[in-house]
Design brief:
9 strands, two-stranded antiparallel sheet, seven-stranded antiparallel beta sheet, mainly beta, 60s Ribosomal Protein L30, Chain: A, about 150 residues
């Protein structure tokens, strides 16, 4: 992974991943190194294989949909926030196969080939997540994102 800050206000970074790097791990490593308060991101590139997730409301877990083929990353969108002092990635991806069919879902894992180019823009508010008792997943808490400010 290579990363560079390309703009100062708001902080904007370009992160470029190379063949065999796992996208989720590398984006979390970026967050730990550069420590953006929170960010939104978009990306394009390709995966040699990936695992997409579908959140099953009744089972309260992500069902895994592996794709073991080379695919184009047609759209990668998501956000980066924090749970206590650990970065949390929430990313959705649409990938395209050779025959033009598309598959989408949560990005659980994606092994890059040959590149993944991601642009991250830091948010002005530092977003925090907290475990939601109904879904059993950490959701953004706006009232926890800006300490001392109540949300209506």
């Amino acid at each position: 992974m290579k990363a560079k800050q390309v703009h100062g206000d708001p902080k904007t970074f370009v992160v470029v991943l190379a063949t065999d790097e796992e996208a989720s791990e590398q984006l979390l490593a970026f967050a730990k190194q550069y420590r953006p308060g929170s960010a939104s991101f978009t990306g394009i590139g390709a995966f040699q294989k990936c695992v997409l997730g579908y959140f099953d409301w009744y089972e309260k877990r992500y069902l895994e949909n592996p794709i073991d083929d080379q695919v184009e990353v047609l759209s990668l969108v998501g956000n980066l926030s924090w749970v206590k002092d650990e970065p949390k990635l929430h990313a959705h991806v649409v990938v395209g196969r050779r025959d033009g069919t598309a598959h989408g879902g949560h990005l659980l894992k994606g092994w890059v080939r040959p590149t993944l180019e991601v642009v991250l823009v830091e948010s002005p508010a530092h977003l925090q997540r907290q475990l939601d008792p109904q879904s059993k997943i950490p959701l953004i808490r706006l009232d926890a994102s800006q300490p001392g400010k109540e949300q209506p």
